[in-house]
Amino acid sequence: MKYRALADTGVFVSELCLGAMTFGGSDVQVWQAIGGLDQDAVNGIVGRALDAGINFIDTANVYSAGQSEVMVGKALGARRKDVVLATKVRGRMGRGPNQVGLSRLHIIESVEASLTRLGTDYIDLYQIHRPDFLTNLEDTLRALDDLVRAGKVRYIGCSNLPAWHMMKSLAVSRELRLERFRCTQSFYSLAGRELEREILPLINDQRLGLLVWSPLAGGFLSGKFTRTSTDDAARRAKFDFPPIDKERAYDIVEVLIRIANAHQVTVPQVALAWILANPAVTSVIIGAKNLTQLDDNLKSIDVTLTADDLTALDEVSKLRVEYPSWMDVLGADRKPGESRY
């Protein structure tokens, strides 16, 4: 296992992070489709991941309505000190009007509940799960800053924010001298490269860490979904998320299969290796419903793609140039009398 710096924190995390969204939820249809794993299965997956060198685990309070956090805490046990443990806040955790969002009230209540469920007295990385445009941003950031000062949280991060909101948050933190977001957890995949338009330039400019969720586009890049085949038992067939352009994704899968065959590896390993080849990426979050899936994903760190492989994958998956980016090719800096073309 290799390790990468989490932005400028001085903390190093494994380039593969174990995601816990598949843990628990066997009694709820949507969570059962995503995973529905019981404690014994979770213990096996967490143990195998740690033994393979993973020192980074990510969960959220909303995953299986808190069950995921409980299971992660139990599976870690005495090995808690060996991992960088991340969880999130924002989603609805009860029927009450204030049991949702990023208000100081909800954040303080949520962190205490997460600490109890995880069986720990501190959270290494506490992330806001989505924006909350009903709550004053300063209130949210001050509440998170207080948690860091109290020692209940080590670092804070964000997830699923638009670039403008992420930059606004960083600016407010600087202006008020509050703890700032050190990383973003964002969707990034060969089948979903929208992050490259504005968020990736922001990450590089502000020296943020990038944690990638759903690198296989909800299992679509498993190699099981092509124009001529499918897998009705797969999560993607039951829970069609995240949204992608499937016709375009089929083209991507065809290239992935060709490259995987050439390297004698699996399609998911190539898809993960493509993301790991990006130096802006801190860690790629992998989920697993069983040890076979986990073991396969773990092998992605040993796949080295050639320049031709990377070019082929980039060409089949690259984004259309959109405004204002296409202004850069109009030749506005040409000399007087010089042709635009």
Describe this structure as you would to a colleague:
The protein has helices at residues 29-34, 39-51, 67-76, 104-118, 137-149, 163-176, 199-206, 235-238, 246-263, 267-276, 291-298, 307-317; strands at residues 3-5, 12-14, 16-19, 56-58, 84-89, 123-128, 153-159, 181-187, 209-213, 283-286. The protein has an eight-stranded parallel beta barrel with strand order 3-4-5-6-7-8-9-10, surrounded by five helices. A two-stranded antiparallel sheet has the order 1-2. The protein is α/β, with parallel strands linked by helices. The relative contact order is 0.12.
Write the layout of secondary structure elements.
Blueprint: E1 3-5, E2 12-14, E3 16-19, H1 29-34, H2 39-51, E4 56-58, H3 67-76, E5 84-89, H4 104-118, E6 123-128, H5 137-149, E7 153-159, H6 163-176, E8 181-187, H7 199-206, E9 209-213, H8 235-238, H9 246-263, H10 267-276, E10 283-286, H11 291-298, H12 307-317
Parallel strand pairs: 3-4, 3-10, 4-5, 5-6, 6-7, 7-8, 8-9, 9-10
Antiparallel strand pairs: 1-2
Helix pairs in contact: 2-3, 2-11, 3-4, 9-10, 9-12
Name the features:
38% helix, globular, TIM Barrel, alpha/beta, 14% strand, 8-stranded parallel β-barrel, 341 residues, two-stranded antiparallel sheet
CATH class descriptor name: Alpha Beta
**Mind describing the biggest β-sheet?**
8 strands, parallel, barrel
CATH domain fold name = TIM Barrel
Order of neighbouring strands in the sheet with most strands? 3-4-5-6-7-8-9-10
Summarize the model shown:
The protein is of the alpha/beta class and 341 residues long. Helix content is 38%, strand content 14%.
